[in-house]
Amino acid sequence: MKVIGSAAKTSFFYKKKKEIHNNWKIIYKFKCSSTEYELDQYLKSNNSIRNNPIAFFSRSQSSGYGRYGRKWYAPVGGIWMSMAYPINSNNFISEIFSISIAYKLCEMLSKESIKVTLKWPNDIFYGSKKLIGFLPKVITRGDQIKFVRVGFGMNLNNQTPSLGISLSQIINKKNLCESYWASKILHVFDEAISLNEKRNIIIKGANRYLNKKYLPKDYCDKDWIIENIDHRGNLVISKNDDQKIINV
């Protein structure tokens, strides 16, 4: 694993886990406008990520964005990163990529006795507050998937807006180790991609954590009910005899 600056500590924690290891290239920034922009520039200048994944971390970012172009609040103390991961399989199922990450994130936190839920398709909630958000993309060339990307944010030690919550608040412990938790996130990506071809396991796991309280945008009528995540990773909702499938 190639390390640059503060990446050494994340690399150390990453290697301590014995399951899946990849040769991640990890780059830390003290501050940037957006880790997505940093990753864009890297990919343009290098033309390819070849065979190894890359992750850009920043202590803070000023112009991050999330789903629907919303402002991504990213102060010092959180984990803010963007990653690109090469896909070396013709059987990769892109439609469940987001759900596989969400499932593995929930599983990771549950193993730490942190009870979280999946707000479909890409937010992780603790109670009624957001702990993690991520924005996945699948990059193709013709019919072939070249690599996947994820913009990721986790409230760790930072102050949050009223609708958010940090992990340090949840477990009532200050100054959680950013490198330790960053390494766990890298393993989540490893596991989500390794598991990708096992559709049934992913969908079953995601449904186990599915938050059925928060309806998708444009379906806020209280009569709509969240049913489940279907085999394509879509959300199934119903109202009386009407059923709708919301695409990822």
Care to give the gist of this entry?
By secondary structure, this protein is of the alpha+beta class. It is built from six helices and 13 strands. The chain has an eight-stranded mixed beta sheet, sandwiched between helices. Strands 11-12-13 form a three-stranded antiparallel beta sheet.
Commentary on this structure:
Helix 2 (35-46) links the parallel strand 2 (25-29) and strand 3 (54-58). The protein has six helices and 13 strands. The chain has helices spanning 7-16, 35-46, 97-111, 167-171, 178-194, 199-209; strands spanning 2-4, 25-29, 54-58, 61-65, 71-74, 79-86, 117-119, 123-126, 129-141, 144-154, 225-229, 235-239, 242-246. An eight-stranded mixed sheet has the order 1-2-3-6-10-9-8-7, with helices on both faces. Strands 11-12-13 form a three-stranded antiparallel sheet. Helix content is 28%, strand content 31%. It has 248 residues and is an alpha+beta fold.
